[in-house]
C-alpha cells in the first residue's frame, strides 16, 4: 500500500483521539466547569454538529486547491481548536474549541477517502479506505485510553494539549507523504452537488446517521454507565475503552475486506448484529465481564459498517465524489449528535444510564431497514440497465 495511506492514518489518529477522548474525561470536565453530565454531553453534540457543518462547507471551499494543501489546512485548524479547548476558562469557550476542531473532521475524512481510493486499484478501494480509518480505530486503542488516563492523572487540559501535539504530527505526516498531485477533478460546485440527485446517496447518509448513531447512543455516556451501573472503578474505564478500540480496529478491517467482495451482505450483517447487541447491552451492562465483551462487540460491529458505507457513497457519486464523501462523514457525526442528545434526554427523564442502549438498538434497526431498501433499489436499477442494454432502448418505468 502507498505511504500516503500512512500519512492519512496519522491524521486520522489525531482526529479520532479528540473525537472519542471526551467520553473518558466527561465527568472531570463537567465537575471542573460545574455543569451536569447531560449538559457536558453538549461537548460531544457540539463537536458532531461542527463536523456536519464543516464537512460540506470546507470541502466546497477547498475545490480550488490541491487535496494535499487542503488536508494540511484542515490539520492546522484541528490543532487550533484543541489548543483552545486546552486553555478554555469557561465551558462556553471549551465548546467553541471543540467546534473549531470539529470543522476539520468531516472534510479531512471525506477528502482523505477520495485520495485513499484513488491511490489503489478499483477492487481495493474499500480496503484502502479502511486503512485510512485504521488511524481512527488505533486512536481508540492507544490515543483515547492514554488520553483518558492522562486526564485522570494530570487533568483533562493536559489531555487536549497532547491532542493538539498529535495534530501537529498529523500535519507533518500529510506534508511529507501525501503527493502534491490530486487537485479535485470537478472544481464546479454544481457538479459536486449533482451527486445529491441520486436517492441512493441520501439513503446511504441516512443509514450512516442511524447506524453510527446507535453506537454513540451507548458510548457517549459510557463512563457513568460503567461506574454507576456496572460497578467498575473510574480508572478501569481506560481499559474498557481499549477493548472498544480493539473492537473498532478489527471491525474496520473486516468491514473493508468483505465490502470489496460483498458490500450489501456485509452491511446487513453488521447492522443487524449491532442492533441486537445494543439491545442486549441494557442487560449485560449489569455484569462486569459481559459488559466488557458487549462493549468490544459494539466497537467491532459499529466500525464494520464504515468502509462499506463510505465505498457505497463513492460508487453512487462516482462523477463527483468529494462533496458526497465529506457529507457522509458529516452524517456519521450527525448520528453522534442525535445519539448524544437522545441519550441525554432518556437519562434526564430518569430512565437510567442503560436507557441510551435501547435508543441505539432502535436507531441501528431502522438503519438495517434502510439498507434493505437501498439494496432493492440497486437491484431494480441494475435490472433496468440490463433491459436497456439488451433492447437498445430504455426500459419502461412502472
Automatic annotation (TrEMBL):
Taxonomy, superkingdom: Bacteria
Localisation: Cell membrane
A Pfam family that the UniProt record links to this protein: MFS_1
Keyword Membrane included in the entry's annotation: yes
Domain Major facilitator superfamily (MFS) profile: 4-382
Segments crossing the lipid bilayer: 41-61, 73-96, 102-121, 128-150, 156-178, 199-223, 235-255, 262-283, 289-309, 330-353, 359-377
Main localisation: membrane
Keyword set, alphabetical order: Cell membrane, Membrane, Transmembrane, Transmembrane helix
One MF annotation (Gene Ontology) recorded for this entry: transmembrane transporter activity
Cellular-component GO terms for this entry: plasma membrane
Record membrane topology: Multi-pass membrane protein
InterPro entries recorded: MFS, MFS_dom, MFS_Efflux_Transporters, MFS_trans_sf
Protein name (Swiss-Prot/TrEMBL): MFS transporter
